[in-house]
Design a protein that fits this description.
It contains 5 helices and 26 strands. With 395 residues, the protein is α+β, with helices and mostly antiparallel strands.
Length: 395
Protein backbone atom coordinates (compact mmCIF):
# COMPACT_ATOMS: atom_id res chain seq x y z
CA UNK A 1 0.00 0.00 0.00
CA UNK A 2 3.04 2.27 -0.40
CA UNK A 3 2.51 3.09 -4.09
CA UNK A 4 0.57 6.26 -3.32
CA UNK A 5 -0.90 7.54 -0.05
CA UNK A 6 -4.28 7.93 -1.78
CA UNK A 7 -4.52 4.21 -2.50
CA UNK A 8 -6.69 2.05 -0.27
CA UNK A 9 -5.67 -1.55 0.41
CA UNK A 10 -8.42 -4.14 0.95
CA UNK A 11 -7.81 -7.83 1.52
CA UNK A 12 -9.84 -10.61 -0.08
CA UNK A 13 -9.57 -14.39 -0.44
CA UNK A 14 -6.56 -15.03 -2.65
CA UNK A 15 -4.87 -11.66 -2.22
CA UNK A 16 -5.86 -8.00 -2.12
CA UNK A 17 -6.53 -4.99 -4.31
CA UNK A 18 -5.31 -1.41 -4.32
CA UNK A 19 -7.99 1.19 -5.01
CA UNK A 20 -7.41 4.83 -5.86
CA UNK A 21 -10.58 6.68 -4.80
CA UNK A 22 -9.57 9.73 -6.85
CA UNK A 23 -9.26 7.95 -10.21
CA UNK A 24 -11.14 4.70 -9.64
CA UNK A 25 -8.11 2.68 -10.80
CA UNK A 26 -7.76 -0.76 -9.21
CA UNK A 27 -4.76 -3.12 -9.07
CA UNK A 28 -5.24 -6.75 -8.07
CA UNK A 29 -2.49 -8.39 -5.97
CA UNK A 30 -1.81 -12.06 -5.24
CA UNK A 31 -1.05 -13.47 -1.78
CA UNK A 32 2.61 -12.41 -2.13
CA UNK A 33 1.68 -8.84 -3.03
CA UNK A 34 2.64 -9.14 -6.69
CA UNK A 35 0.34 -7.33 -9.18
CA UNK A 36 -1.80 -9.67 -11.31
CA UNK A 37 -4.08 -7.21 -13.10
CA UNK A 38 -5.38 -3.66 -13.29
CA UNK A 39 -8.48 -1.88 -14.55
CA UNK A 40 -10.34 1.38 -14.35
CA UNK A 41 -13.60 1.68 -12.43
CA UNK A 42 -16.59 0.02 -14.05
CA UNK A 43 -18.83 2.20 -16.24
CA UNK A 44 -22.41 3.01 -15.38
CA UNK A 45 -21.89 5.63 -12.68
CA UNK A 46 -24.76 8.06 -12.39
CA UNK A 47 -24.48 11.82 -12.47
CA UNK A 48 -22.88 13.33 -9.33
CA UNK A 49 -25.24 13.44 -6.37
CA UNK A 50 -25.33 15.96 -3.50
CA UNK A 51 -22.78 15.39 -0.72
CA UNK A 52 -23.62 12.56 1.66
CA UNK A 53 -24.18 13.14 5.40
CA UNK A 54 -20.96 13.87 7.24
CA UNK A 55 -19.00 14.32 4.01
CA UNK A 56 -18.96 10.61 3.19
CA UNK A 57 -18.37 9.82 -0.51
CA UNK A 58 -21.27 8.54 -2.64
CA UNK A 59 -21.40 4.78 -3.00
CA UNK A 60 -19.94 3.40 -6.24
CA UNK A 61 -21.97 1.40 -8.73
CA UNK A 62 -19.56 -1.54 -8.55
CA UNK A 63 -16.75 -3.04 -6.46
CA UNK A 64 -13.84 -5.32 -7.41
CA UNK A 65 -14.07 -9.02 -6.48
CA UNK A 66 -11.01 -11.32 -6.25
CA UNK A 67 -10.97 -12.05 -10.00
CA UNK A 68 -8.86 -9.44 -11.84
CA UNK A 69 -10.86 -7.36 -14.28
CA UNK A 70 -14.27 -8.32 -12.93
CA UNK A 71 -16.80 -6.27 -10.99
CA UNK A 72 -19.64 -6.80 -8.54
CA UNK A 73 -22.65 -4.60 -9.25
CA UNK A 74 -24.04 -3.18 -6.01
CA UNK A 75 -27.77 -2.93 -5.38
CA UNK A 76 -28.97 0.31 -3.82
CA UNK A 77 -25.88 2.42 -4.57
CA UNK A 78 -28.02 5.40 -5.58
CA UNK A 79 -29.45 5.63 -2.05
CA UNK A 80 -26.30 5.21 0.03
CA UNK A 81 -22.98 6.78 0.97
CA UNK A 82 -19.80 4.86 1.71
CA UNK A 83 -18.67 4.16 5.28
CA UNK A 84 -15.31 2.37 5.19
CA UNK A 85 -13.99 -0.06 2.57
CA UNK A 86 -15.54 -3.27 1.24
CA UNK A 87 -14.64 -6.41 3.18
CA UNK A 88 -15.05 -10.15 2.79
CA UNK A 89 -16.63 -12.66 5.15
CA UNK A 90 -17.39 -16.30 4.34
CA UNK A 91 -17.29 -15.67 0.61
CA UNK A 92 -19.55 -12.61 0.64
CA UNK A 93 -18.64 -9.03 -0.18
CA UNK A 94 -19.94 -6.60 2.42
CA UNK A 95 -20.10 -2.85 2.16
CA UNK A 96 -21.43 -0.62 4.92
CA UNK A 97 -23.09 2.67 4.08
CA UNK A 98 -25.46 5.27 5.44
CA UNK A 99 -28.80 5.58 3.67
CA UNK A 100 -29.47 9.08 2.35
CA UNK A 101 -33.07 8.86 3.60
CA UNK A 102 -31.80 9.78 7.09
CA UNK A 103 -32.93 10.89 9.63
CA UNK A 104 -35.93 8.55 9.31
CA UNK A 105 -33.63 5.58 8.80
CA UNK A 106 -30.15 4.61 9.87
CA UNK A 107 -26.72 3.32 9.04
CA UNK A 108 -26.82 -0.33 7.98
CA UNK A 109 -25.00 -2.95 5.97
CA UNK A 110 -26.57 -2.14 2.63
CA UNK A 111 -24.98 -4.80 0.46
CA UNK A 112 -23.86 -8.36 1.14
CA UNK A 113 -23.42 -10.38 -2.01
CA UNK A 114 -21.72 -13.66 -2.93
CA UNK A 115 -19.16 -13.73 -5.72
CA UNK A 116 -17.79 -16.72 -7.63
CA UNK A 117 -14.31 -17.95 -6.69
CA UNK A 118 -11.47 -16.61 -8.89
CA UNK A 119 -11.34 -19.79 -10.97
CA UNK A 120 -15.11 -19.95 -11.53
CA UNK A 121 -17.33 -18.20 -14.02
CA UNK A 122 -20.25 -16.08 -12.73
CA UNK A 123 -23.25 -18.30 -11.99
CA UNK A 124 -26.17 -15.87 -12.17
CA UNK A 125 -27.40 -12.71 -13.81
CA UNK A 126 -28.62 -11.43 -10.44
CA UNK A 127 -27.43 -8.20 -8.87
CA UNK A 128 -24.52 -10.01 -7.22
CA UNK A 129 -23.05 -11.40 -10.45
CA UNK A 130 -19.50 -10.48 -11.46
CA UNK A 131 -19.27 -8.80 -14.87
CA UNK A 132 -16.29 -9.11 -17.27
CA UNK A 133 -14.38 -5.89 -17.87
CA UNK A 134 -11.58 -5.11 -20.33
CA UNK A 135 -8.19 -4.66 -18.63
CA UNK A 136 -6.84 -1.12 -18.54
CA UNK A 137 -3.65 -1.89 -20.40
CA UNK A 138 -5.43 -3.28 -23.49
CA UNK A 139 -6.94 0.06 -24.38
CA UNK A 140 -10.20 -1.71 -25.26
CA UNK A 141 -13.48 0.07 -24.44
CA UNK A 142 -15.08 -0.88 -21.14
CA UNK A 143 -18.35 -2.73 -21.82
CA UNK A 144 -20.89 -4.37 -19.56
CA UNK A 145 -23.60 -6.82 -20.68
CA UNK A 146 -27.18 -5.64 -20.12
CA UNK A 147 -28.77 -6.59 -16.82
CA UNK A 148 -31.80 -8.89 -16.70
CA UNK A 149 -33.30 -6.95 -13.76
CA UNK A 150 -32.73 -3.59 -12.02
CA UNK A 151 -30.20 -3.69 -9.15
CA UNK A 152 -32.95 -3.62 -6.48
CA UNK A 153 -34.69 -6.72 -7.91
CA UNK A 154 -34.03 -10.47 -8.02
CA UNK A 155 -34.10 -12.59 -11.18
CA UNK A 156 -36.70 -15.36 -10.81
CA UNK A 157 -36.73 -18.63 -12.73
CA UNK A 158 -33.63 -18.04 -14.81
CA UNK A 159 -34.96 -14.77 -16.22
CA UNK A 160 -38.72 -15.36 -16.27
CA UNK A 161 -39.35 -12.07 -14.39
CA UNK A 162 -37.99 -9.83 -11.64
CA UNK A 163 -39.21 -9.26 -8.07
CA UNK A 164 -38.21 -6.69 -5.45
CA UNK A 165 -35.52 -7.90 -3.09
CA UNK A 166 -37.22 -6.23 -0.09
CA UNK A 167 -40.68 -5.07 0.95
CA UNK A 168 -41.22 -1.57 -0.36
CA UNK A 169 -41.02 1.80 1.33
CA UNK A 170 -43.10 4.51 -0.33
CA UNK A 171 -41.28 7.65 -1.50
CA UNK A 172 -42.76 10.98 -2.60
CA UNK A 173 -40.63 12.67 -5.27
CA UNK A 174 -37.49 11.11 -3.82
CA UNK A 175 -38.30 11.68 -0.15
CA UNK A 176 -39.31 8.83 2.17
CA UNK A 177 -42.92 8.89 3.32
CA UNK A 178 -44.11 7.89 6.76
CA UNK A 179 -44.48 4.08 6.87
CA UNK A 180 -47.27 4.47 9.45
CA UNK A 181 -49.89 6.36 7.42
CA UNK A 182 -51.76 5.82 4.16
CA UNK A 183 -50.34 7.66 1.15
CA UNK A 184 -53.75 9.05 0.11
CA UNK A 185 -54.49 12.45 1.71
CA UNK A 186 -58.22 12.01 2.39
CA UNK A 187 -57.71 8.69 4.13
CA UNK A 188 -54.75 10.06 6.08
CA UNK A 189 -56.68 13.07 7.35
CA UNK A 190 -59.65 10.95 8.46
CA UNK A 191 -57.38 8.48 10.24
CA UNK A 192 -55.45 11.17 12.09
CA UNK A 193 -58.65 12.93 13.14
CA UNK A 194 -60.16 9.69 14.42
CA UNK A 195 -57.13 8.61 16.42
CA UNK A 196 -56.40 12.01 17.88
CA UNK A 197 -59.60 11.33 19.86
CA UNK A 198 -59.78 7.51 20.04
CA UNK A 199 -56.33 7.01 21.55
CA UNK A 200 -57.63 8.48 24.82
CA UNK A 201 -60.42 5.90 25.06
CA UNK A 202 -58.85 2.67 23.77
CA UNK A 203 -56.70 0.58 26.11
CA UNK A 204 -55.17 1.56 29.42
CA UNK A 205 -53.14 4.49 30.69
CA UNK A 206 -49.90 3.27 29.14
CA UNK A 207 -51.55 3.02 25.72
CA UNK A 208 -52.99 6.52 26.14
CA UNK A 209 -49.48 7.89 26.56
CA UNK A 210 -48.20 6.42 23.26
CA UNK A 211 -48.09 9.33 20.78
CA UNK A 212 -49.15 9.17 17.16
CA UNK A 213 -46.16 8.75 14.81
CA UNK A 214 -45.26 11.87 12.81
CA UNK A 215 -46.76 12.19 9.33
CA UNK A 216 -43.96 14.35 7.94
CA UNK A 217 -46.24 16.20 5.52
CA UNK A 218 -49.46 18.20 5.55
CA UNK A 219 -52.46 15.84 5.91
CA UNK A 220 -54.04 17.41 2.83
CA UNK A 221 -50.90 17.16 0.66
CA UNK A 222 -51.19 14.96 -2.41
CA UNK A 223 -47.99 12.94 -2.79
CA UNK A 224 -46.72 11.40 -6.02
CA UNK A 225 -45.64 8.18 -4.44
CA UNK A 226 -43.67 5.24 -5.72
CA UNK A 227 -42.45 1.96 -4.22
CA UNK A 228 -38.74 1.50 -3.56
CA UNK A 229 -37.02 -1.71 -2.47
CA UNK A 230 -34.41 -0.60 0.10
CA UNK A 231 -32.46 -2.52 2.74
CA UNK A 232 -32.62 -1.53 6.42
CA UNK A 233 -35.76 0.65 6.43
CA UNK A 234 -39.26 0.32 7.85
CA UNK A 235 -41.51 -0.95 5.04
CA UNK A 236 -44.70 0.99 4.43
CA UNK A 237 -47.94 -0.27 5.98
CA UNK A 238 -51.50 1.04 5.42
CA UNK A 239 -51.20 0.40 1.66
CA UNK A 240 -54.41 -0.49 -0.17
CA UNK A 241 -54.42 -2.73 -3.23
CA UNK A 242 -55.03 0.30 -5.45
CA UNK A 243 -52.20 2.23 -3.75
CA UNK A 244 -49.91 -0.75 -4.21
CA UNK A 245 -50.59 -0.90 -7.95
CA UNK A 246 -50.06 2.87 -8.27
CA UNK A 247 -46.78 2.75 -6.34
CA UNK A 248 -45.40 -0.07 -8.50
CA UNK A 249 -46.39 1.66 -11.75
CA UNK A 250 -44.70 4.88 -10.64
CA UNK A 251 -41.50 2.89 -10.09
CA UNK A 252 -41.65 1.41 -13.59
CA UNK A 253 -42.81 -1.94 -12.23
CA UNK A 254 -46.14 -3.70 -11.59
CA UNK A 255 -47.92 -5.74 -8.97
CA UNK A 256 -46.98 -9.41 -9.02
CA UNK A 257 -49.54 -11.94 -10.17
CA UNK A 258 -50.33 -14.30 -7.30
CA UNK A 259 -48.67 -17.18 -9.16
CA UNK A 260 -45.53 -15.07 -9.68
CA UNK A 261 -45.46 -14.04 -6.03
CA UNK A 262 -45.83 -17.63 -4.82
CA UNK A 263 -43.17 -18.97 -7.18
CA UNK A 264 -40.69 -16.30 -6.10
CA UNK A 265 -41.42 -16.97 -2.42
CA UNK A 266 -40.79 -20.73 -2.77
CA UNK A 267 -37.35 -20.12 -4.26
CA UNK A 268 -35.54 -22.26 -6.78
CA UNK A 269 -35.84 -25.29 -4.45
CA UNK A 270 -39.66 -24.93 -4.63
CA UNK A 271 -40.26 -25.30 -0.89
CA UNK A 272 -43.25 -24.25 1.21
CA UNK A 273 -41.13 -21.80 3.21
CA UNK A 274 -38.30 -19.58 1.97
CA UNK A 275 -35.82 -21.57 4.07
CA UNK A 276 -37.11 -25.12 3.44
CA UNK A 277 -39.97 -27.58 3.55
CA UNK A 278 -40.81 -27.44 7.28
CA UNK A 279 -41.93 -24.56 9.47
CA UNK A 280 -39.21 -23.13 11.71
CA UNK A 281 -40.42 -20.68 14.32
CA UNK A 282 -38.57 -17.37 14.30
CA UNK A 283 -36.92 -17.83 10.92
CA UNK A 284 -39.43 -15.33 9.47
CA UNK A 285 -41.19 -12.51 11.32
CA UNK A 286 -44.57 -14.25 11.59
CA UNK A 287 -46.72 -15.93 14.29
CA UNK A 288 -45.49 -13.57 17.01
CA UNK A 289 -46.77 -14.31 20.50
CA UNK A 290 -48.11 -10.75 20.87
CA UNK A 291 -50.55 -8.63 18.90
CA UNK A 292 -50.21 -4.83 18.65
CA UNK A 293 -53.96 -4.18 18.93
CA UNK A 294 -54.10 -6.20 22.14
CA UNK A 295 -51.21 -4.14 23.52
CA UNK A 296 -52.82 -0.78 22.67
CA UNK A 297 -56.55 -1.54 22.81
CA UNK A 298 -56.83 -4.65 24.93
CA UNK A 299 -58.46 -6.45 21.97
CA UNK A 300 -56.66 -7.79 18.85
CA UNK A 301 -59.83 -7.42 16.76
CA UNK A 302 -60.32 -3.65 17.03
CA UNK A 303 -58.57 -0.43 16.06
CA UNK A 304 -56.72 -1.69 12.99
CA UNK A 305 -56.47 1.85 11.57
CA UNK A 306 -54.47 3.08 14.55
CA UNK A 307 -51.24 4.52 13.08
CA UNK A 308 -49.33 3.44 16.20
CA UNK A 309 -49.80 -0.30 15.65
CA UNK A 310 -46.61 -0.90 13.66
CA UNK A 311 -44.60 0.90 16.35
CA UNK A 312 -45.46 -1.62 19.08
CA UNK A 313 -42.67 -3.79 20.52
CA UNK A 314 -42.85 -6.86 22.73
CA UNK A 315 -40.29 -8.95 24.61
CA UNK A 316 -38.81 -10.06 21.25
CA UNK A 317 -38.35 -6.49 20.08
CA UNK A 318 -40.17 -4.42 17.41
CA UNK A 319 -43.09 -6.28 15.86
CA UNK A 320 -42.60 -4.83 12.39
CA UNK A 321 -38.93 -5.21 11.51
CA UNK A 322 -36.76 -3.22 9.13
CA UNK A 323 -36.22 -4.81 5.74
CA UNK A 324 -33.70 -7.63 5.54
CA UNK A 325 -33.57 -8.25 9.32
CA UNK A 326 -34.29 -11.99 9.05
CA UNK A 327 -31.38 -13.45 7.12
CA UNK A 328 -32.90 -16.95 7.13
CA UNK A 329 -36.18 -15.71 5.63
CA UNK A 330 -34.62 -15.58 2.17
CA UNK A 331 -36.25 -16.96 -0.97
CA UNK A 332 -33.09 -17.87 -2.88
CA UNK A 333 -32.59 -17.65 -6.63
CA UNK A 334 -29.03 -18.44 -7.64
CA UNK A 335 -26.70 -16.27 -5.59
CA UNK A 336 -29.44 -13.76 -4.79
CA UNK A 337 -32.59 -13.79 -2.64
CA UNK A 338 -35.85 -11.96 -1.93
CA UNK A 339 -36.25 -11.33 1.80
CA UNK A 340 -39.27 -11.45 4.14
CA UNK A 341 -41.78 -12.74 1.61
CA UNK A 342 -43.23 -14.61 4.59
CA UNK A 343 -44.04 -12.41 7.56
CA UNK A 344 -43.35 -8.78 8.49
CA UNK A 345 -46.15 -7.34 6.28
CA UNK A 346 -48.74 -8.96 4.04
CA UNK A 347 -48.11 -8.05 0.40
CA UNK A 348 -50.70 -7.18 -2.22
CA UNK A 349 -50.87 -9.12 -5.49
CA UNK A 350 -52.62 -8.33 -8.78
CA UNK A 351 -55.61 -10.65 -8.24
CA UNK A 352 -58.66 -8.87 -9.66
CA UNK A 353 -60.86 -9.36 -6.61
CA UNK A 354 -58.08 -8.49 -4.18
CA UNK A 355 -55.58 -10.84 -2.53
CA UNK A 356 -52.53 -10.40 -0.33
CA UNK A 357 -49.98 -13.04 0.58
CA UNK A 358 -47.25 -14.08 2.99
CA UNK A 359 -48.80 -13.29 6.37
CA UNK A 360 -47.85 -10.36 8.60
CA UNK A 361 -45.91 -10.47 11.87
CA UNK A 362 -48.87 -11.25 14.16
CA UNK A 363 -50.76 -13.62 11.85
CA UNK A 364 -50.98 -17.09 13.43
CA UNK A 365 -49.92 -18.81 10.23
CA UNK A 366 -47.70 -21.77 9.43
CA UNK A 367 -48.69 -21.69 5.75
CA UNK A 368 -45.53 -19.97 4.57
CA UNK A 369 -45.63 -19.13 0.86
CA UNK A 370 -49.14 -20.59 0.65
CA UNK A 371 -50.63 -17.99 3.03
CA UNK A 372 -53.12 -15.99 0.96
CA UNK A 373 -56.06 -13.80 2.08
CA UNK A 374 -58.84 -13.10 -0.43
CA UNK A 375 -61.52 -11.78 1.96
CA UNK A 376 -60.87 -8.06 1.34
CA UNK A 377 -61.36 -5.92 -1.78
CA UNK A 378 -58.49 -3.95 -3.24
CA UNK A 379 -59.67 -0.72 -1.59
CA UNK A 380 -59.11 -2.24 1.86
CA UNK A 381 -56.18 -1.14 4.00
CA UNK A 382 -54.84 -1.52 7.53
CA UNK A 383 -51.51 -1.45 9.38
CA UNK A 384 -50.48 -4.95 8.23
CA UNK A 385 -50.61 -4.37 4.46
CA UNK A 386 -47.59 -3.53 2.32
CA UNK A 387 -46.32 -4.04 -1.21
CA UNK A 388 -43.58 -5.71 -3.23
CA UNK A 389 -43.36 -5.19 -6.99
CA UNK A 390 -42.53 -7.32 -10.03
CA UNK A 391 -41.30 -6.48 -13.50
CA UNK A 392 -40.72 -8.32 -16.75
CA UNK A 393 -37.08 -9.31 -17.17
CA UNK A 394 -35.05 -7.57 -19.83
CA UNK A 395 -32.33 -4.96 -20.50
Amino acid sequence: ATERPSFRLAAHPGGAWLMNPATGRVRWLDTRGAPVGAAMAAPGRRAPRPPCPGGAPPAPAAAPPPTPGRWVWLAGHDDASVVGAPSWHEGRLRWVGVQTVAPLDHTAEWVSVPVAAPSSAPTTAAAAAARPLAAEQTGAPLTVPPRACPPDMVVVGGGAYCIDRFEARLFDRGRPMSPDHPPVPGRTARMLQAWAENRWHEGGLVAHAVPLPPLGRAPTATPRFEARSVLGVQPSGFVSGYDAATACRAAGKRLCALEEWTRACRGERDTKFPYGADYRHGACNVFRASHPARALHGNPSVGHLDPRLNRVADEEGPMRRVTGTHADCASRWGDDAAYDMVGNLDEWTAEKGGAFAGGFFARASRQGCEAVVTAHPRRYTDYSLGVRCCRDAGP
